[in-house]
């Protein structure tokens, strides 16, 4: 009964890896006293001398700190490109291309004008990174424990999707006020030049907890932000995790256990860039809506979507692919580097549990 039923389930799962092309892994999973089983994917081997237990409070705190560094610094670094992208979305007649957008901005505002919105970008995306990466680790372990070891392996990509979506829901609530301020500074000439000017003005107009349907609320864009960021993050984490598996299995010319930490971080960077390209594509229409919505008065997400049309929502896609691809690769690289620096547990890509192999008749 078990072999037939489980085989059908595994083959029917569109996210599962091939179950019958297993390779013998020479390195056994190392365990530490009091440490939970390491079942989930990451871009490195398990080393001795970890500074904390996998899934401990210290582990989650340091993962959140890694998220702050990876998201806050990278998003701030690409503010000039983000500014031009936003202006192309809300005023395509004036900002016709990336090059033209940079030229017009420098001509009107000077070189310093390219840095507009850096403060809300740094604060907002630092808070988002804290929640995104920190809660992802929490939900990944939580859902894995609920599923059990065998189902965690069979449905691991579904688990990555669910954990990342759950984390991003809270991350966007942390990001929304600063995202609204950033877009206002970048796309409304004369409204405000700094966060210190923008935040009091926005608060005076509506108040922090104004309803989403009212004008210019700090949280006016949270719903379309969910539309943009949740698919983006689901793709970011699930595609990254599975790409890491594929790279070690089909591309890296030597076993993972023989790769040095710098080589493992290169795998992290490559997998992050591949994931970033797909992230940009799936989230771009909602990103266009968010940019216009935070600029205009009296508009709803559906009204903006209808007005932009099928062609308008893809305006600025090339710039976003460049920005998000590089951004995502750097974020994963920084995040994994933080884990290396603090000697956090970094589980290897998942392997089929022995109990499942026996049920499937793959071992004697």
From TrEMBL:
It is a multi-pass membrane protein. GO terms for biological process: mitochondrial phosphate ion transmembrane transport. It catalyses: phosphate(in) + H(+)(in) = phosphate(out) + H(+)(out). SUPFAM superfamilies: Mitochondrial carrier. GO terms for molecular function: phosphate transmembrane transporter activity. Coiled coil: none annotated. The chain crosses the membrane at residues 265-286, 317-335. Keywords: Membrane, Mitochondrion, Mitochondrion inner membrane, Repeat, Transit peptide, Transmembrane, Transmembrane helix, Transport. It is found in: Mitochondrion inner membrane. One of its GO terms (cellular component) is mitochondrial inner membrane. Solcar repeats lie at residues 58-142, 155-246, 263-341. Inorganic ion transporter that transports phosphate or copper ions across the mitochondrial inner membrane into the matrix compartment. Mediates proton-coupled symport of phosphate ions necessary for mitochondrial oxidative phosphorylation of ADP to ATP. Transports copper ions probably in the form of anionic copper(I) complexes to maintain mitochondrial matrix copper pool and to supply copper for cytochrome C oxidase complex assembly. May also play a role in regulation of the mitochondrial permeability transition pore (mPTP). Belongs to the mitochondrial carrier (TC 2.A.29) family. Interacts with PPIF; the interaction is impaired by CsA. This is Solute carrier family 25 member 3.
